[in-house]
Write a structure and sequence with these properties.
- The structure is a single chain.
- The chain contains 12 helices and 2 strands; from the N terminus they run H-E-E-H-H-H-H-H-H-H-H-H-H-H.
- It is mainly alpha-helical.
- It has a single domain, classed as Hypothetical protein af1432 (Orthogonal Bundle), CATH 1.10.3210.
- A two-stranded antiparallel ribbon has the order 1-2.
- Strand 1 and strand 2 form a beta hairpin.
- The longest helix is centred in the middle third of the chain and has 20 residues.
Length: 213
């Protein structure tokens, strides 16, 4: 009972740090004109997993996927969200800083839960298991799906190219994920065309600069 009481105390002591993800903003916008929080991104990922995991060609441990998604951005409670396309010192140092943050988080939490959280994060980052491949694919797909819901004026010019360069490698291992990517990309192309982007020219330029695309 004393161990349980200590564990309960440590979990409650950790929640103020975890709560930061509710107000840590990402470079993604909602359809009502407000920026998306990291916590909202995580919830959307979990919902996408609920709605798609049974369609995968290779079955996954769904409980492990959900746990992985729930903790994959916990480190951002300490280091903040850093956009994928940002070119900066903090981007180059992100992996090291996030690893250190997750080590500290594991120490804050009770045993064995702290180590479980750290191992889930490491599995996500490594991306070798079926569960982590699925989670990492959704992590990229959610970003584009959310961009498609937002006003086109919130897109950075670099994000036009990311429609074609960011998601494919994460989804290449599964036919259903490739289909989901294709549908999301179709929506993105319609969004760009409505926003005045010459989609055909963009695709031609990308193919010339990267023939393997």
């Amino acid at each position: 009972m004393d161990d349980d009481r200590l564990a309960a105390t440590k979990v409650l002591d950790f929640l103020p740090l975890a709560e930061r993800l509710k107000f840590e903003l990402r470079h993604s916008w909602l359809s009502n004109g407000r920026q998306e929080s990291v916590a909202e991104h995580t919830w959307f990922l979990i919902l996408m997993a609920v709605l798609t995991h049974k369609r995968l060609e290779q079955p996954v441990d769904f409980g492990r996927v959900l746990a992985m998604l729930a903790v994959h951005d916990l480190g951002e409670a300490e280091i903040g969200d850093i956009p994928f396309f940002e070119s900066s010192d903090r981007q180059s140092q992100k992996a090291t800083q996030e690893q250190a943050a997750m080590d500290r988080i594991a120490q804050m939490l009770p045993d064995p839960e702290g180590e479980t959280v750290r191992q889930l994060w490491l599995e996500f980052e490594d991306g070798h298991t079926a569960e982590s491949k699925f989670a990492r694919a959704l992590d990229h797909l959610e970003v584009q799906a959310q961009h498609n819901l937002a006003e086109f004026s919130t897109w950075e010019p670099v994000e036009h190219e990311l429609v074609y360069t960011k998601m494919d490698s994460r989804c290449a291992h599964d036919g259903f994920l490739k289909l989901l990517l294709s549908e999301i990309r179709n929506q993105s192309e319609s969004k760009m065309a409505d926003g005045g982007i010459d989609v055909a020219s963009l695709k031609t330029r990308l193919k010339l600069s990267n023939p393997s695309w």
